[in-house]
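Technical note accompanying the year-one report. For the benefit of new consortium partners, we illustrate the data format agreed upon in the data management plan: each record pairs a sequence with a structure-token string. No post-processing was applied to the example shown here.
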Amino acid sequence: MKKTACLLSMLVAASMILTACAGAGGGGNTIKVGGIGELTGDIPAVGASFKNAAEMAVKEINDAGGLEVGGKKYTIDFVIEDNAGKADQSASAAQKLITQDNVVAIIGPNASRYAIPASEVAESNKLS
């Protein structure tokens, strides 16, 4: 429950950032958000919990009619990438989410040793 509330808070924070770029990264009424998790590798249980919590939060938001940004409702499209518990794959996952999946925000990875390389890619691409 705490993980779902935390993820929901992160998605709400991302929605505030997205106000200036509403509609970017998805279809006309969709906001595409990426996630990077340790689905395989050294801490797969953490990645599985992250994925499940994210999917539950997205379902709750979408079932409630979506997220309101700038007076308009948007559904959330969540795309997750596996970093296999490796720093270099975290950076690659972030790059893919930004350049191929066109997400407007990235959540994760959980472990700081994986989050730092991903955050450097996100920052260089001016992504949250």
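Partners are asked to follow this layout when depositing records. The mean pLDDT is 84.
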